[in-house]
Design brief:
This protein is an all-alpha fold. The protein has helices at residues 22-25, 30-39, 44-47, 52-68. The chain has one domain (1-76). It contains four helices and no strands. It is globular. The relative contact order is 0.19. Bound molecules: zinc ion.
């Protein structure tokens, strides 16, 4: 199964451990990138059990990118 970028409307294939493709990842503030890696647990992409915290920061990151690209986003 191919893992794709989590940014809205992006279907670029990326390795499972990466949340987004390089372009979308680069749109995140450094602090947000750090948050993602802080909550990332090696192997979570294999057992499909990311932590609640990871899912939380992931959702924020996806939303930030969506807003930066002019999508409506879903945070509020
Ligand atoms: Zn992307």
């Amino acid at each position: 199964m191919t893992h794709t970028c989590h940014a809205e409307g992006c279907s670029k294939a990326v390795p499972p451990k990466y949340l987004m493709c390089g372009k979308h990842w680069a749109m995140l503030p450094l602090s947000q990138q750090r948050e993602i890696w802080r909550h990332y647990r090696p192997g979570q992409e294999v057992d499909k059990r990311p932590s609640i915290d990871y899912l939380r920061v992931m959702k924020i990151a996806v939303d930030l990118v969506a807003r930066a690209e002019g999508h409506q986003g879903s945070l509020l």
